[in-house]
Amino acid sequence: MIVKKFQALTETEAVIKAQEELGSGAVVLNVKTLKQRGIFRLFKKDIVEITAALEEKDFVQNISQNKPRFQNNIGINSHSINIVADEKLDAGTKSEMLEVKLDSLHNSLRNQLEKETDFEKAINEVTYSKQEEKKVVREKENNNFKFLQLIYQKLIDNDVDEKFANMIISEIEGSLKKESNIDSLLAGVYQKIILKLGEPKPIVLGKKTKVAFFIGPTGVGKTTTIAKIASTFKLEHQTKVAFITADTYRIAAVEQLNTYASIIDCPVDVVYSADEIVDCLKLYESYDLILVDTAGRTHKNEEQMTEIIDLLQKAANTKDLYDIEVFLTLSITTKYKDLVKITEAYKDVQEYKIIFTKLDETCCLGNILNLKLLTNAPLSYTTSGQNVPTDIEVINEQSLAKQLLGGND
Ligand SMILES: Nc1nc2c(ncn2[C@@H]2O[C@H](COP(=O)(O)OP(=O)(O)OP(=O)(O)O)[C@@H](O)[C@H]2O)c(=O)[nH]1
Ligand SMILES: [Mg+2]
C-alpha cells in the first residue's frame, strides 16, 4: 500500500492533488487542519492535510513506463520493484564487499526506514494483518526500493550525473534477488561501480623508451603532475627521466619545469614547434621515461587545439621507436558540462588516459565516474595537493567507489 500526505488550502484541493499523483483509485484515510504558527498565522490561512492511500498494484498501473526509474529526489512515492536474481555476485566478492565500511550510508538507509510514522505503521498493520505472508514480501520489496532510492541519492549528492546514476541502479535492479538485504544491495552497487571505473592504467615502463604527453586545459596541474611522476620514478625505481616542454606560451612556464628538473636532477629541453619534437625525442632515446609538458589549452580555441593535435601526430610517427602515451589532465573541480565540452575538443586525440587533479578541493568525486562512462578512456592517476612528489596516487577504485556511496575511504 502507498500512503502519502497532501496539503492544500481546502480539502477538495488536497483530494485533487492526491488523485493527480496516485490516480482515481486513491482513498482518503485521514483529514487534518494544520494551524499556522507564529506571526504568520495573522496573514496566512490554515491548511488542510489529507492522508491518502492506494494499493501498489494500482499505482504501478498508473506510472508511465517511459519515466526514468528515479528522480533526483528521495521523497518520491515508493512502489514495488521486480528484483530477480543475484548470480552475478560470487561468494568471495560478496564477503569482501560486506567488509567494506560503508557505515554512513548503511546508517542513513536504516534511519530512513525507521522514519515511517506510527500512523502509517498502524495502517499497514490493519491492511496486512490478514495476509501475513503477503505483508512480509511487500515490505521486503518496499525496503529494496527505499535502499536503491537512497543509494541513487548518494550518487547524485556526489555529482554522479543523473543519467549514469539511473543506469547503475537499473542494472542492479535487474540482477538482485527478491529478498535482497541492505548488504547485498550495497555490495552489488559497490561492485558495479568498481567494474565501471575499470582497471587503472598508470605509466608502466617497458622495453621501449616511454614517452608520456600531458595535455589539458590551463592551470589544471599538468606541470605539477609531471614533477610528481618524475620524482616518484626517480626515487622509487631509479628511472632515467627527461623532460621536454612544448609550453613556450606562458611566461615562466619553462622556468617552472626547470626548477623541478634541477631538484629532481634530470635534463629539460624545449620545443618551439611541432616539427622539432622528433629530433628532441631522439636526444633522449637512451632514457627510460620522457615526460612532455604542453601549454594549457582552452578547448574553445580551435587554433590552439590544432597545434596540440599536430604535436601529437608528429610524435606518433615515431611509435616504432618509442612507447607513446597521452594523459588528458583534468581538474575534478570543473563542472561536468564543461568536462563534456573539453573531451569533445580532444576527440581527435586517439587513446588518451585520464588524470584527475585537485581531489583535495572537493568532496564530490562523481566526475571521475562520469568521465569514465562518457569517454571510456582508462583512468590513471589522481592528485590531491600541491606537494611534490607525495600528493599523487594511481587511481584507487575501491576507495573511490566507497566515497561515491557516501562511505569514508
Ligand atoms: N589543490 C591542488 N592544487 C594543485 C594540484 N595540482 C596542481 N595544483 C596547483 O595548481 C596550480 C597550477 O598547477 P600547474 O602544474 O602549473 O598547472 P598547469 O596545468 O601546468 O598550468 P598551465 O601550464 O598554465 O596550463 C599550481 O598552483 C599547483 O600547485 C592538486 O592536486 N591540488
Ligand atoms: Mg604547465
From TrEMBL:
<keyword id="KW-0653">Protein transport</keyword>
<dbReference type="InterPro" id="IPR047040">
    <property type="entry name" value="FlhF__GTPase_dom"/>
</dbReference>
<keyword id="KW-0966">Cell projection</keyword>
<keyword id="KW-1006">Bacterial flagellum protein export</keyword>
<keyword id="KW-0969">Cilium</keyword>
<keyword id="KW-0282">Flagellum</keyword>
<dbReference type="GO" id="GO:0005886">
    <property type="term" value="C:plasma membrane"/>
</dbReference>
<keyword id="KW-1003">Cell membrane</keyword>
<dbReference type="GO" id="GO:0044781">
    <property type="term" value="P:bacterial-type flagellum organization"/>
</dbReference>
<dbReference type="GO" id="GO:0015031">
    <property type="term" value="P:protein transport"/>
</dbReference>
<feature type="domain" description="AAA+ ATPase">
    <location>
        <begin position="208"/>
        <end position="333"/>
    </location>
</feature>
<dbReference type="GO" id="GO:0003924">
    <property type="term" value="F:GTPase activity"/>
</dbReference>
<dbReference type="InterPro" id="IPR027417">
    <property type="entry name" value="P-loop_NTPase"/>
</dbReference>
<dbReference type="GO" id="GO:0005525">
    <property type="term" value="F:GTP binding"/>
</dbReference>
<keyword id="KW-1005">Bacterial flagellum biogenesis</keyword>
<keyword id="KW-0547">Nucleotide-binding</keyword>
<feature type="domain" description="SRP54-type proteins GTP-binding">
    <location>
        <begin position="209"/>
        <end position="406"/>
    </location>
</feature>
<keyword id="KW-0813">Transport</keyword>
<dbReference type="InterPro" id="IPR003593">
    <property type="entry name" value="AAA+_ATPase"/>
</dbReference>
<comment type="function">
    <text>Necessary for flagellar biosynthesis. May be involved in translocation of the flagellum.</text>
</comment>
<dbReference type="InterPro" id="IPR020006">
    <property type="entry name" value="FlhF"/>
</dbReference>
<dbReference type="InterPro" id="IPR000897">
    <property type="entry name" value="SRP54_GTPase_dom"/>
</dbReference>
<comment type="similarity">
    <text>Belongs to the GTP-binding SRP family.</text>
</comment>
<dbReference type="Pfam" id="PF00448">
    <property type="entry name" value="SRP54"/>
</dbReference>
<dbReference type="GO" id="GO:0005047">
    <property type="term" value="F:signal recognition particle binding"/>
</dbReference>
<dbReference type="GO" id="GO:0006614">
    <property type="term" value="P:SRP-dependent cotranslational protein targeting to membrane"/>
</dbReference>
<keyword id="KW-0472">Membrane</keyword>
<keyword id="KW-0342">GTP-binding</keyword>
<protein>
    <recommendedName>
        <fullName>Flagellar biosynthesis protein FlhF</fullName>
    </recommendedName>
</protein>
